[in-house]
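DOMAIN: structural biology
WANTED: fold as tokens
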Amino acid sequence: MNIFIKNHFESHSTKPFLSFEDSEYSFAAVYQKAFSIAEKLKQIGLESGDRIIIRFWNEPDFIFAYFGVLLSGGIAVTVSPMLTQPELTKIQTHSGARLILSFEDATISNKDTELHQISLEKLLNSLYFDSSINLLEKGNTNNVSKDLPQDLAVLIYTSGTTASPKGVMLTYANIKAQLNAAGKVLEINQSDSLLGILSLSHVFGQMDVLWLALFYGLKIHLISKFEASHAIKTLREKEISILIAVPTMYQLMLKYLDNDIYSSNQFSKLRVCHSGASYMSPQLFQKVEKSFGAGVQEGYGLTETCSMAFSNPINGIRKPGSIGKPIEGVEMILLDENNNQIKKSSSEENNEIGEICIRGQIVTEGYFGSPEETQKAFFTETEHKDLWLRTGDLGFLDKDGYLFLVDRKKDLIVHSGHKVYPREVEEVLEKHPLVDQVAVIGVLAGELHGEKIKAFVVLKNRDPNNKILSDEQKDQLKIELKNFCKKELAKFKVPNFFEFIDEIPKTPSGKLKRLELRNKK
């Protein structure tokens, strides 16, 4: 499958591909960098199908390493550079990754082995027999299906409700289907250029910025870490035509523009503002259109759908608050609580809510090494070979077939554009010696942050209402718990609020009653 990548680089070889700070790279230059990395990986022992973790900020080295691994026949496991050592080790163990290519040189020691992170500079400047760059032994793959996709390209990990990592398998077939459909949704033309502010380690930025640029021969203006002022300056100076961002980013850019002295025609080349990953309110929709002078196109997708699965059109009817209709090649049904299909409404009233289920070539074949998780997330029909994906999200269709999200069936928290799973945070807090029980929920915090994270904590050796501690002691303990979380969790996963309570509400079967906590005054 590296022929697919090679052909696209060669077909656009003389065109500019990447702009980063003061550096410019053509398609040919990026390919040469990636090819050198691919050859070096083969020299040190990488074999086809081996997993290699890619851990960089938004910078050229991410792109060189990413395509280098793919050109070598390896599978790219992309992770956030903000992950802590325990989080990174968990993903390496589960994926069986044999090396970490990273923005830093480091060695992570654990009870079983030493995990090496190496920079591209060290990799490329080393000799093939350099003992400081040893690939890890192949991991135990007994739990990995023997029927893995033959064209597997990328693993992107999402946390499950039990905090066990789930590696979403994305194939070249998934990627091609996504790019063909996304190109039509965005009405791509050869003069388009993209602003690269989405994290390339996540599916949204990876597919709808990086791969989109390669597939259609577009230029990316890449920004390492998002700052509203930098993004606005780049939009103006580089005359970018497509802005793809999450609602939090749009909110921050609008806040910056409120104090701006430029005219309303400052983004003359910008033709579309695409938004996804979390809900955009109709009010924010209208503000973005007015301030940027370009149409807002809201969509919806998951890692499991290789990014975009639904979208409003650019030049058709766009409905604020709706995520639009399925993109090309995607089928969608809504299921009620009894798994019966819900039909779209013939009127604007009494729209029945159900779980969104998706089928099509963009949908992953499952989770790497997790057959039980795969079985829970998918179902099939005897007359059709493709699997239906249960998204866990709830929505309804209006009379025109536009989909509206209502709530999450899962307990996912979206905090400042980042996905946070409560159980992952709970398992860290439960390690604290003073914590007996804990439950984590999301609390609404406005359009800027979406939701913030709140932890309800029951302490050990307590008396009713936790009066064993004074108010001052409780405040000190809240700080201690937050610092405790920072050691094992990325910054965006650390709770914003703590509340000490006497008892965690649970059902008779022992499940947490999160709704009761959300309604707690």
Q: What stands out?
A: The longest strand covers residues 384-397. Confidence is low (pLDDT under 50) at residues 140-146.
